[in-house]
Write a structure and sequence with these properties.
10 helices, alpha/beta, 275 residues
Length: 275
């Protein structure tokens, strides 16, 4: 009888678990069981420390302010080169807008939990707070079909996106799919244009496409100077610039991430902590 009761309990439909946006301004979405875990301290840098991305910064900031004020706003896809500040910008914009509009929440969902997105949106729909739903490094591989459910959730489904939720995603790929996946569709599909349209239609669900590209040397050094001034790191500017350029050469790139890694190294050599 106990085994039968256990089997019936497992077969029964799952009950909706109430979600709460309480106790913090940022949350992580976890499944099994479904829950929102508060994040007391978000790992981010201030908006004024992000250099070389002024145009996309202003666009995303304006879009977020409109959403926080209860006005119409678009889902946003931040795509481009790695380490160029996509994730940092989302977190910094949330911090800046939340100062003016208390109650704006940031909810992060992992790429692996995208299939649970309809449950999360259903739980957030009746929340009194407005929320930015954020997925970092969103992309799909050749055999991954979960992008189809994401399309319906963002736009096209009966319920659609709740009015109190907006979706921001970052990706290294503009269309969220690998290039060879697009090329394979063109070469094997009966109607190549229809097959490719099916793949790129996911990115069309994002009203804002914000591109991020490798920064110039001047922008890179401006990031270094901004961090040094903010954290009060000492040293001759010419020497710091020379070290920073050498650091970027060893990393094979100039980006916000590389600049931050250099600053951490510089602060460590000076016996400082970046708090």
């Amino acid at each position: 009888m106990s085994r039968i009761a256990d089997a019936l309990e497992r077969a029964a439909p799952e009950q909706d678990v109430p979600l709460y946006l309480e106790g913090a301004d940022a949350f992580m979405w976890h499944t099994d069981p479904d829950r929102l875990a508060p994040v007391p301290k978000v790992n981010r840098v201030g908006l004024d420390l992000l250099r070389g991305i002024d145009q996309v910064r202003d666009i995303l900031l304006d879009n977020t302010r409109r959403f926080a004020a209860g006005h119409a706003a678009n889902n946003a896809l931040l795509w481009g080169a790695r380490g160029t500040g996509k994730s940092s910008l989302v977190k910094a914009v949330h911090q800046a807008v939340a100062r003016d509009v208390p109650g704006l929440a940031l909810v992060e969902i992992n790429r692996e939990d995208i299939p649970s997105l309809p449950r999360l949106l259903h739980g957030l729909r009746d929340q009194p707070r407005r929320a930015i739903l954020y997925c970092d490094d969103l992309s799909f591989d050749t055999d991954d079909t979960t992008y189809k459910s994401l399309k319906a959730v963002l736009e096209g489904g009966l319920e659609g996106r709740p009015d109190n939720v907006i979706f921001y995603a970052t990706s290294n790929r503009r269309h969220l799919m690998p290039r060879d996946m697009m090329e394979n569709e063109r070469s094997t599909a009966i109607n190549p244009s229809e097959a490719v349209d099916e793949k790129v239609s996911l990115s069309d669900r994002f009203g804002l496409w914000l591109g991020f590209h490798n920064c110039s040397q001047d922008d890179y050094l401006a990031m270094i100077d901004g961090y040094c001034a903010h954290y009060e790191l000492s040293g001759d500017q010419a020497d710091i610039h020379a070290d920073a350029l050498e650091w970027s050469v060893t990393r094979g790139a100039r980006s916000g991430r590389v600049a931050w890694q250099f600053i951490q190294d510089l602060a460590g050599r000076q016996g400082r902590s970046l708090v």
